[in-house]
Amino acid sequence: MASNPTRIAILFSGTGTNLKNLVAHILAENVAATLELAICNRPDAKGLEFCRDNNIPHELIDHTNYSDRAEFDAAMQTALQAANIDLICAAGFMRLLTPEFVRHWQDRIINIHPSLLPAYKGLHTHRRVLEAGDKTHGCTVHMMRPEMDEGPILVQRQIDVLPDDTEDTLAARVMEQELIAYPEALDMMLARLQG
Ligand code: GAR
User: Fold this and answer.
1) Catalytic position from the list 58, 113, 126, 137
2) Cα Rg for the chain, rounded, in angstroms?
3) Domain annotation for the chain: domains and CATH numbers
4) Predicted confidence (pLDDT) per residue in 18-41, tens digit
5) Three-class secondary structure of residue 149 per DSSP
């Protein structure tokens, strides 16, 4: 491992499939990074169990306890700065961040989204792909910018939409690609940050 590994925080809101995958990747040999903090904004998120069971340093910052986005983001900022974080990975983090927060972390905050951006920003991407009759779908890991689901693309992985696909089958096959795409994108970011 490099002498100064990149200190990573992961943001998540739900099941935590990408969280688990990133943790496994960061713990793998030859990845010059340490997971310093996982932050979750929802007390019912399944990923919290994984953090507790695996001694992952984590904080629940419940957004409902804050009067507005700026206050919530300030609480996150305090936690991230206390942990001396270099790079943030949003992994199924379903909360919009303020432009000020994203600008502060410009080029040091990345996100995964279940569509071939710039197509299908926002929610319900699998349903919208089916409704549009698209033949392809996929996932994107990108650097975050203040506008939702925008920013320079790091990795994109594509799948074919099959005639009998449902939202669930599409979600499962896109997730298979997410599990390849996010570690690839993280490695790209580590190479950039460690120059
Ligand atoms: C993933 O499919 C991720 O791409 C998506 O939420 C899911 C989280 O699942 N993110 C977004 O939609 C962000 N705009 P997970 O908690 O099991 O990793």
Assistant:
1) 113
2) 16
3) 6-194 (3.40.50.170)
4) 999 999 999 999 999 999 999 999
5) coil
